[in-house]
Recover the amino acids of this structure.
């Protein structure tokens, strides 16, 4: 009953994804007016960037 197989890589990629998301969130931090610039657009952009990163990493076999 060992369910650990396949869990490691998933957890790893989740951590990496969250790290990337944190960095991106910092990049998308409020501009001069102190409000987020179009939160939805930012979220979509973040998602596209994450998907690109994920594809890159998978392409390298990491």
């Amino acid at each position: 009953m060992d369910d650990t197989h396949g869990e490691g890589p998933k957890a790893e990629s989740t951590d990496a994804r969250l790290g990337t998301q944190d960095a991106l969130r910092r990049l998308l931090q409020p501009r001069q007016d102190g409000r987020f610039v179009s939160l939805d657009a930012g979220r979509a952009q973040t998602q596209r960037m994450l998907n690109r990163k994920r594809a890159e990493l998978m392409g390298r076999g990491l």
Remarks:
- The radius of gyration is 15 Å.
